[in-house]
Each structure stands twice: as C-alpha cells, then as structure tokens.
Amino acid sequence: MFGLIFDYVKQHKWMYLLIAVLIIVYDVTLLIPTQVIQRLVDQLSHETMTAGSLTRDMVILAVASGLNYLSAYIWHYKLFQGSVNFKFGMQQRAFKKLVTMRTPFYEKISARRYADAVFNRC
In sequence order, which residues have a C-beta less than 8 Å from that of residue 36 and are 6 or more positions away? Predict the structure, then answer.
C-alpha cells in the first residue's frame, strides 16, 4: 500500500512540491501578524506612531492575512484533491480487475456458497 502511495507522489511530484512550498509560506505568514502587532504596541508605548507607519503596518497585516488564507486554502485543496484522485484510481483499477476476471472465479466465490460456509460453521 505504501508503495502505491509513493508511486502516486512520484507521478505528481510537482503538485506535492507546490504543497510543501505553500505549507512553508503558510507557516511564515502566521508569524507576521504577531510581529506587526508587537511593533504597533511598541510604537504606542513609546509614542512614536505616525499615520504613515500605522498605514504601512495595516497594509502589511492585510497582505499577510490574505496570503495566509490563500496559501492555506490552496494547499488544503490540492492535498485533499490528490487524495480523492488517488482513491478513485485505486477503485477504478480494482473494478477493472474484477470485470476482467473469468466466470469460474465468480462461480467458486459466490455469495450463496460463502454464506453457506459461514452459517454451517456456526
């Protein structure tokens, strides 16, 4: 099972590389609002805040928050989309294999015989 997962990741390495980069961007942008707020509090306490610095810090805060939200959305979407695609591929291969199996397999493993075997053991 792990081999199938690793093969899928190898086939889609650029998507998973993008996910890894976006996770790093997401984590870095989590730190920026704390630093901006710390700077604002320091400026308030030292009475050195100006309208220009407040505007700059608010823009930085808005951009960091937007980038954080966007990167989180994209990496979540891509990661879970990849999971759904992997599951679909597995189900499709399993169904294709069942369809191509010959009749003796289904005669040997029929639901009635299986049920009889289970109930006769009890």
Answer: 57, 60, 61, 64
Q: Which of 19, 15, 24 is nearest to 68 (CA)?
A: 24
Contact by Cβ (8 Å): 7, 59: no
Structure tokens at 118: 């289970």
d(Cα 82, Cα 20) in Å, to the nearest integer? 14
Please give the Cα distance from 104 to 120 (Å, whole number). 23
The pLDDT of residue 107 is: 64
DSSP, res 9: H
What is the model's pLDDT at position 53? 92
CA distances from 29 to 24, 35, 46, 83 (A): 9, 10, 26, 26
Rounded-to-integer distance, Cα 32 and Cα 59, Å: 12
10-residue averages of pLDDT along the chain (122 residues): 81 91 94 93 92 94 94 92 86 81 66 66 58
